[in-house]
Write a structure and sequence with these properties.
Largest sheet: 11 strands, antiparallel
Number of strands: 49
Number of helices: 8
Helix content: 10-25%
Distance between the termini: 20 Å
Structural class: mainly beta
Radius of gyration: 49 Å
Length: 703
């Protein structure tokens, strides 16, 4: 009876404990982020009155079970449903934050870290982010002042509303980015004005300016240049006029003056004649040359650079309004260069220098593999040496005859004797000039590589190029005839000049290659520190900052003949650094899903203020409740590493601003548990009263 009495007592105690747990759950049904608990029963010790015995094969008696009398119940565990998410409650307070997932906020009392799911935060008088209920400071990561990026590491208290965060001071623009498509078939790109785009930027005082840039196509596919056209202020006035200077380049420069030079031989259509205007009498005519080519050296006529004009004749047609006038002067110029490799490999000549004299001498390979060298043939003096006389001053015709040719040069009169030069690498060049008039026929035999005719009418070159070759010089493209060959082909040098930066694309993919110089992705709009105006006064330009403009995202692909190129300030990163701005006031704060706190200002700036860090535990149910919606670590929960994590790092958690997590208490379940607990308590009380009655009867036996 005494055992049953104490079993009833233990049952009352455990049911009372269970009722305490239920009561606590119901009391916290509206507590922010409260996690409900439930109690687990277990039986207590057992008194064994007889041990169990096994079967006995010898006697044939079977085994019997142990006889055990239970001594009641006890509390086995009180579990917390810590991983069960509570419902969301909207508060519209930007500082209220709810965690989705199994993470915990980290807060600090000043001496100890605690952990909570309660995201009802506030800002204290010092600008710290704190728990509204306890004032404990919320922990996270600060922003690196230089990069503007989150500086992860050991968690620190977040002071987000510092004085410097209440306003956004004016700042000069230092970065820009160009994006979009540059379509090569866009007519604007090929126009004189180019593809014009504007770029807005700020100076250090927050004043706004607009730079006008233009992109122009070069003659080569995939190559363009971009130049600065003008800069205007907020009133639309050019800074050139505002500061009273001659040119905008005195204020800011964008690239340098450059030119692209190429030489190309253009062929004539039709009969090979060149039509031009005579500068002397205004008549037009046709310049006709009759020719045939021979070989300069035996066996090497297939080499164009070794070809020659043999029995060249310049014939003057009948003089009329459509022909070249008689007695017109014509100058023919030519040269041929034989480099050292050609002379050695093709002609078997060896080069050496002795006593300030250049020599070539033939070499012969003998049957036994040995090499025999012939006599030295002097080719001319070292330019830095005293010119030789006597036998050393061998005529060029004799030199060529030594090389295996049979070349006859005219002496005296016309054509003039050729000029011979040898460079430091042993290359031999012969240059000549021959003068003719159109009233007679002149024979000329000479070696030539770039053999041609130079007209005596320089002023007419432009018209000749336009009518004969279709070449028109423009403001930035200039053509110039070097010579016209006897068959009417012209060697023309084309110079394309611009001031700005080259913009080059990969013609296979249309992707950006470089701007300015190879391997360069950005160029600088470079402001002068000061300049001098037209009155001689010094103008201070120190409020402007140089701007690095990145072109790496622009593409040169088909877009229906329409370009979408756009200039934006900033570097295009997450924080868009270097945008520049006027001074602005704080107008709002938001907390993003990754816990990053951003401030918005009325000047359009968005500034990162910090990031709320969270942590996870191997066994979150092992955390100990510390009151005030706080938890602390235990040996069974795992330790906090002091660093924390980004809540989005595993892709499962997030934060939501303006929302709080509600209690996860299930009232229906709690009331059901309350009923069963009440009945259990009543039943255990009956054990005590019944045991008491039995004891009373036992005492009454003595009466």
């Amino acid at each position: 009876m005494m055992r049953s009495l104490f079993s009833g007592v233990s049952g009352l105690k455990t049911h009372q404990t269970r009722m305490d747990v239920i009561g606590n759950n119901i009391a916290n049904v509206n507590t922010t982020a409260y996690k409900s608990q439930n109690m687990v029963f277990s039986d207590l010790l057992y008194q064994q009155t007889q041990a169990a015995s096994g079967a006995n094969a010898d006697t044939g008696r079977g085994g019997i079970n142990a006889r055990q009398i239970g001594l009641g119940s006890k509390t086995a565990a009180i579990n917390t449903a810590i991983t069960r998410q509570g419902s969301a409650q909207s508060t519209n307070n930007p500082w209220d934050v709810m965690i989705s997932g199994e993470s915990f906020f980290i807060v600090n009392s000043g001496s100890q870290n605690f952990f909570t799911r309660d995201g009802s935060f506030n800002i204290d008088s010092s600008g710290n982010l704190v728990m509204a209920s306890t004032g404990y400071r919320v922990m996270g990561w600060q922003v690196d002042e230089e990069t503007g990026e989150i500086q992860s590491g050991p968690v620190q208290a977040l002071q987000v509303m510092k004085a410097e965060n209440m306003t956004a001071p004016a700042e000069a623009t230092t970065n820009g980015i160009v994006s979009g498509i540059l379509d090569k078939n866009d007519t604007d790109v090929h126009s004189k004005a180019g593809l014009v785009r504007t770029f807005q930027f700020f100076d250090a005082r927050g004043y706004s300016y607009t730079a006008q840039f233009s992109i122009h196509a070069l003659s080569t596919d995939g190559q363009y240049y971009v130049q600065l056209d003008d800069i205007t202020d907020d009133n639309g006035q050019s800074l050139k006029d505002y500061y009273n200077v001659n040119d905008i380049s005195q204020i800011a420069s964008f690239g340098e003056a450059k030119s692209i030079e190429e030489t190309k031989v253009y062929g004539l259509p039709g009969d090979g004649s060149v039509t031009y205007k005579d500068g002397g009498n205004g008549k037009t005519g046709t310049f006709t040359v009759n020719y045939n080519y021979g070989e300069i050296l035996t066996g090497f006529g297939e080499n164009v650079m070794m070809s020659m004009a043999e029995n060249l004749k310049v014939t003057a047609p009948a003089a009329d309004n459509n022909k070249l006038p008689a007695n017109s002067a014509v100058t023919m110029q030519g040269d041929v260069t034989l480099d050292r490799n050609v002379l050695q490999e093709k002609y078997g000549l060896t080069y050496d220098e002795k006593g300030g004299q250049y020599y070539y001498r033939p070499e012969t390979k003998n049957a036994d593999g040995s090499i025999t060298y012939g006599d030295r043939t002097p080719l001319g003096p070292n330019p830095n040496a005293t010119p030789p006389t006597g036998p050393d001053a061998t005529a060029w015709g004799e030199v060529l005859s030594k090389l295996g040719g049979n070349v006859q040069l005219a002496t005296g009169g016309t054509p003039a004797a050729p000029l011979i030069s040898v460079d430091e690498k042993g290359a031999v060049t012969m240059s000549f000039t021959a003068n003719f008039t159109t009233n007679k026929e002149s024979a000329f035999t000479a070696a030539t590589g770039t053999f041609g005719v130079t007209l005596n009418y320089p002023a007419d070159k432009a018209e000749i190029m336009e009518k004969a070759y279709g070449l028109n010089s423009t403001d930035n493209v200039k053509f110039d005839i070097n010579y016209i060959t006897p068959d009417g082909h012209a060697s023309v040098t084309r110079v394309e000049s611009y001031e700005g930066n080259a913009l080059v694309f990969d013609t296979k993919t249309g992707k950006f290659s470089y701007v300015g110089d190879p391997e360069q992705t950005a160029v600088t709009l470079d402001f002068a520190g000061s300049t001098t105006d037209l009155t001689g006064q010094t103008v201070d330009l120190g409020h402007f900052s140089d701007i690095s403009i990145d072109f790496s995202t622009i593409r040169n692909v088909n877009n229906g003949k329409t370009s979408t190129v756009a200039y934006d300030n900033g570097d295009g990163s997450e924080n868009n650094l270097g945008t520049g701005r006027k001074e602005g006031a704080l107008i709002g704060v938001e907390i993003s899903q990754d816990g990053k706190i951003r401030a918005s200002y009325d000047n359009g700036l968005s500034k990162l203020l910090g990031q709320i860090a969270v942590t996870k535990f191997a066994n979150p149910a092992g955390l100990a409740k510390a009151g005030n919606n706080l938890y602390k670590t235990t040996l069974n929960s795992g330790e906090f590493d002091g660093t924390g994590i980004d809540i989005t790092s595993d892709g499962e958690g997030s934060m939501e601003s303006g929302v709080l997590e509600m209690s996860n208490v299930d009232l229906a379940g709690e009331f059901t548990e309350m009923i069963t607990t009440q009945r259990g308590f009543q039943a255990n009380s009956r054990i005590i009263t019944t045991s008491d009655s039995m004891l009373e009867e036992l005492v009454n036996l003595k009466r």
